Amino acid sequence: MRTNLADLPAGKTAVVVGLHGGYGAMRKLDAMGVRPGKKALKLSSQFMGGPVTVLIDGRQVAMGRGIARRVLVDTTD
Fold first, then answer.
1. How much helix, strand and coil, in percent to the nearest 5, is found in the chain?
2. pLDDT tens for residues 12-25?
3. Domain hosting residue 18, numbered range
């Protein structure tokens, strides 16, 4: 199932399949280690627009919902 990282339920693992946005957003995601082909485990997300926390390559990464919506993922189950 394809969705974005913001809408992925907590505790689910997904593979990053695409990134959307301009140069600045792509650069920020690349610096966080969010790249196509990487597995991401969503740890948590805060209610009412707080940050989304994911585990990528053993590193915990927090990002805002706006940038998390730019990350297209495919669930592994």
1. 20, 40, 40
2. 999 999 999 999 99
3. 2-75
In angstroms, the Cα distances linking 35 to 10, 19, 38, 55, 71 are 20, 8, 6, 13, 9
Phi and psi angles of residue 24, each rounded to the nearest 5 degrees, phi first = -65, -45
Which pLDDT tens digit goes with each residue over 55-67?
999 999 999 999 9
CATH of the domain at 28: 2.30.30.90
Please list the alpha-helical segments (H only) found in the chain.
23-32, 65-68
Residue 29, CA atoms < 13 Å, CB-side half-sphere: 25
